[in-house]
Structure formats: structure tokens, C-alpha cells
Amino acid sequence: MQSARPIPPLPAPVRPDPVRDRWAAPMRLAIAEAALAPATGDVPVGALVLGPDGGIIGRGHNVREAVGDPTGHAEVVAVREAARRVGEWRLSGCTLVVTLEPCTMCAGAIVLSRIDRVVYGALDEKAGAAGSLFDVMRDRRLNHRPEVIPGVLAEECGAQLRAFFDTQR
Ligand SMILES: [Zn+2]
Question: What is the 87 CA–ligand 1 centroid distance (Å)?
């Protein structure tokens, strides 16, 4: 009998994630969109709306400081652009990709727009309304509940926000 020698643990492999991996490419585009926000002193959050065929029909970054609008969140900007392009308010079949967990206002706007899927990056433990503080979009009392996919490139999304807040100190 061979003596059982302890085998050192291997580094954790990067496991494929069939739910999240397909959203990494659009999330990288949302991160690039977010990078436009700090030019006006805005927090780097970026969002895209993808049409049913996967093409980009709306994009936005935070413009609260840029235009002095408390509702100028990335998701609202992107949803408005998508609705303009589609020609109606209903965005059935669309997916919203955003670098930070939506707040209560944006979660409400997403429900009202009938978007089918929300993909987000970093958790917002202080104000998130997609599982952290509230779970507006999966509240069974509402008549429209999009699929929610959290944590896509969460590290990158979180690092972008931390880098911004570090420069604000
Ligand atoms: Zn918001």
C-alpha cells in the first residue's frame, strides 16, 4: 500500500458559468459607457439596453451632475433612449445590462418598461433594489417580474466605482 501523501491544493480553477459568461461581453461595453461619467463628476455607472436580437438599442451613464437631474441614472437614460428608438414605452424582449445593482427608482422604471431581463455587475448593499436592500423586480405583488442575473464581472464593476470614490477623497 502506498502511503497517502497530502497533495497540495491546486489554485481554484476559473469555472465556466453558463448563466453569467454570455453577458460578460455586453457588461464590458457597459463598463466602457460608465467610464464616460467621471468627466462631469458623475459616479461611473453605465447601462445598455439590448433588443430581442441582442443589438444595442439604448445606452447611458450617470448624468446627475452633468444635467442637474436627480433621476439622471444610467438605467433611466438607457431605457429612455431604447423606448425612443423602438417607438413605444414597452420594451418586451429586451435586456438591460448595468454595472451596478439598480436603485429603487431604476428598478421601478425597469418594471414599468416591461424589460424581460436585468443583468448587473456590482452589488449595492446600501441602496440596491435588486436583492440587496430591496428586491423590487422579483416582488410577487407586481405583475411584471424580469429575470435578474446579478454579479456579472462584479469585481471589475466594483473596482471602477472604488477607483472613482478614491479620487473623491
Ligand atoms: Zn437608479
Answer: 23
